[in-house]
Fold TonB family protein.
Amino acid sequence: MKKIILAILWGLCASSLLAQGRLIGRVVGENNEPIAGATVSISGQTAMVAISNAQGYYVLLDVPQGQYELKATKRGQPVWRGSVTITGGVTQRIDMKLGDKSENLAAKAAADAKRAKIEKPKKETETKKEVEEEEKRPEQEVTPVVTTTQDLAKEKELQKAIEESEQLSQLDAAQTNLPETDVEIVGGIEAIQSKIEYPMALKRARIEGTVVARVFVDEQGNPLRISLVQPANKFLNEEVIRVLTEETKFKPAKIGDSPVRGAITIPVKFKIQ
């Protein structure tokens, strides 16, 4: 009987793994220079975020198969948007070039601000339509490359990035070597809430929600990746990701006096007063 139960459990685990894929790649600038600290996010049936390392590589593991919107951002750089279909049991690679057929966020923000000053207040139905149209905005057509073990062997730094991401997942799943001191937010949750900018279109439409994010932090207090445990509206998710990656400082976890990698779960509420 015990063997039968183990066989069933093994079958379930194998089925779950086959239903997940991996997305890897590199973020570079207009001159093909690697961009470190870029935020690469996917949103669909789940939402996940990876931060590119010093060589520009990003890694997203255990992504449920399905279709996702893909986005890469870095403060001071144009945004990159695309879409990808994740296939179970397959590692796909998408490299992103910021500034290449991308939308300039700063220019768009300035234009939006200018237009907002002269616009008349919108009715709720008009605002909801605006949100729906923005969600349907066309993205870049990208062709993922299926990556093999032989391909990875040619890029040692990418292989290293994948191994580090796998170790982080294993530690989080096993809950081993738990730090004596948890990761802390500098200034507390209030510091995050004070930096949150409620998307105006959603505020007009009175769309509320709570985003719960799990942030993995390295020994220096830098975010490594973010999992949205409880996502909300796409634009609320994006605002939380922006603040956590660009506006928030963390104190790393500690074992004794030594800083170590750790994680913290953060709820962010969007409520119209």
In short: The first helix runs from residue 2 to 18. Helices lie at 2-18, 105-118, 124-135, 149-153, 156-174, 188-195, 200-204, 234-247. The radius of gyration is 20 Å.
